[in-house]
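Give me structure tokens for this 330-residue protein.
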Amino acid sequence: MNDIEQFGRENLVKIANWYYVSGMTQEQIAVKLNCSRQRINRIIKSLVDLGVVTIQINGGDSGCLALEDALERRFGLCRAVVAGVDAYPEQSSLELCKKGARYLETFIANRQTVGISCGSTLSQLVACMRTQVKSLCQVVQLVGTLNTRRQANVIRPDTTARLLAKKLSCGCSLLYAPGLSSAGREEALSLPDIRRTMDSFATCDIALVGIGRLVPGCAVHKLGAADEEELAQAAQGNCAGEVALNRYTLEGKGLGPAFDRAIGVDMETLKHIPYVIAVAGGLCKADAVLGALRTGCIDVLIVDSLLARKLLEKPGTPGSEADGQHGRCL
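Here you go.
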């Protein structure tokens, strides 16, 4: 199998759609796929021989392709990845994670630094990835918590980071969060191991993040970063959701630092990472995802088809006609 065939059928179909239907240049497509323009040139020249292009684009789910295009245009995304779950909504989470896993396998290149936050869907997606040999990559844990009483069924951020490193066959920088009270947060941030990991956030080429709601039983709650009273206060403060434990409103306005018992990447650092890839599933996440997209820090969105339609039905940001102004890949 040559390097073009290894790129994956879905990516080949997407490239064909971007090039022949959307009229994108090879350079624009290369940026979206984190590869060289020369590689895109070779792929486009091979599309007919591979049976992807004749007089029309062949293969792929045309319904999902249309949803992806609509999301990319409206929110200025580099890429939208939509898992078709209409026929089997009861398996939507698994199908979403499998589709996202196939995407990440082809997107992450060797020698890149990949940061990862937390969340059950994100952890499941990583679990669905096939093991690859990308030993020159480095995985960085982006979030941690201090002196918390975690619920027994929570998937810890360090566990997810270790699993991704195992899938990529590479090293991992963990954000060890010692058992300090929130009053000792500044002391924790000055510790050499923690400071070293946090300094590496700015070197990340890719950040993988979940998008969460701030409700009892959410990841933030299970990790112990916030109790029910704090979640209620966040809801009263017009908080729509969290990305890597950073809160924001439905309009995409940041609500300051992460929770007092959390340490990790801040929203401004996320905005400077070249590719921030967010994953979310379920209709209940619509407002949380919409607010996250409006922050301007998300480059790639992985969602299911039901949530994709719900997002497109939502009205634009108050005072504007659309949300594309918030995107980084316009």
